[in-house]
Amino acid sequence: MSENQTPTGTARTARLTRSTSESSVLVEVDLDGTGQSSIDSSVPFFDHMLTALSKHSLIDLTVKASGDTHIDAHHTVEDVAITLGEALGQALGTKAGIRRFGEATIPLDEALANAVVDVSGRPYLVHTGEPAGQEYHLIGGHFTGSLTRHVFESIAFHARICLHMTVLSGRDPHHIVEAQFKAFARALRSAIEPDPRVSGIPSTKGSL
Fold it and tell me: At what angle do helices 146-159 and 44-57 cross, to 10 degrees?
């Protein structure tokens, strides 16, 4: 992990584990990294998406997970997303000095996705625009299309962020999912980065 720190000298890092009868998960994050990652969720397509999330958010990310994927990938993917959300929330700390809002519209060939993030402290997800039947596609042999929304929902609720994700176009199921992860990554990058013009909490309430 990077040793970068915020202007206040506090490292924005977290290391969390989650263990259930269905999975075992380790997640490490450094919000001020360079996009380096070491990902092994035991679900190959999800690894691909998390690697893209790390690369384009510039968050250094380690994920090590195992679980009952012989039954279904759902439990392991869900538990990784929950733990990642909790790690992001912990690493953000008081959220002093951040931009708070971020937005990105990202293409991947025929697919186009828009993500808007508010590090609000109020968890919320709006997820729209996927073509009919996308939720039923099995991508990479393990990852069901319906998991995409569930991943964003789990991250948003456990990181306590507001996320609006809109798929604007797309035909290929792989491209539709990957465009969303990259859009989220870029929007999150903008929202959590320090703003040199901001001192304190970016809210009229005084807390986020």
Answer: 50
Q: Are 18 and 83 in contact (CB under 8 A)?
A: yes
Backbone angles phi, psi at 171, to 5 degrees: -130, -45
Q: How many Cα atoms sit within 13 Å of 76 on the Cβ side?
A: 25
CB atoms within 10 A of CB 178: 23
C-alpha dist (Å) from residue 121 to 71, 106, 135, 186: 35, 25, 29, 19
pLDDT in tens, 140-194: 999 999 999 999 999 999 999 999 999 999 999 999 999 999 999 999 999 999 9
Taking CA atoms, 177 is separated from 63, 89, 163, 170, 196, in Å, by: 19, 23, 16, 9, 33
What is the helix (H) or strand (E) element at residue 113, kind and residue range? strand 111-118
Q: What is the pLDDT of residues 89-105, one digit of tens each?
A: 999 999 999 999 999 99
Do 47 and 40 meet the contact criterion of CB atoms below 8 Å apart?
A: yes
Gap between the terminal Cα atoms of the chain: 26
